[in-house]
Amino acid sequence: MPLLDTPIATLDGAPLDRDALAGKTVLVVNVASKCGLTPQYTGLEQLQERYAGRGFTVLGVPCNQFGGQEPGTPAEIATFCSATYGVSFPLTEKVDVNGAGRHPLYAELTTTPDDDGTAGDVQWNFEKFLVGPDGTVLHRFRPRTEPTSPEVVAAIEAALR
After folding, report:
1. Is the pLDDT of residue 2 over 80?
2. Which residue from 1, 4, 76, 123 has the highest number of Cβ atoms inside 10 Å of its Cβ?
3. Which positions ≥6 away from 158 have C-beta within 8 Å?
4. For the chain, which domains are there?
């Protein structure tokens, strides 16, 4: 079963249109509005704009598990992302990425090791997982890796070939 076939709702509560993700390269990122890393939304949107026409999308997954840094309602999150960063990529419902209540999507994602060979729990907001068109996790980038860093861009470019 491809990874992105795991059911998850959109920020407004409707089922995520998994057909819209089918065959795409997807950068799955747990996001938060009140984090020191929140400015990474700028880079995520730049990736979305640069690669959307080539079969790529960012998928933002709000999470409030790290310092309570995503406390807003779905409407507040949507407004913040749109008004502050012009986010055009899809956002899911707010979920847990770690612990007993971890969403099934993240139960699968977190089995993927980073470049140092470390798998397991998400470290903080803005951890990134690059999922290939076939649903395979290709790369895991830790939170401080900027979305537009050379390693992320190179991984996206390689996946889109």
Report:
1. no
2. 4
3. none
4. 3-16+23-159 (3.40.30.10)
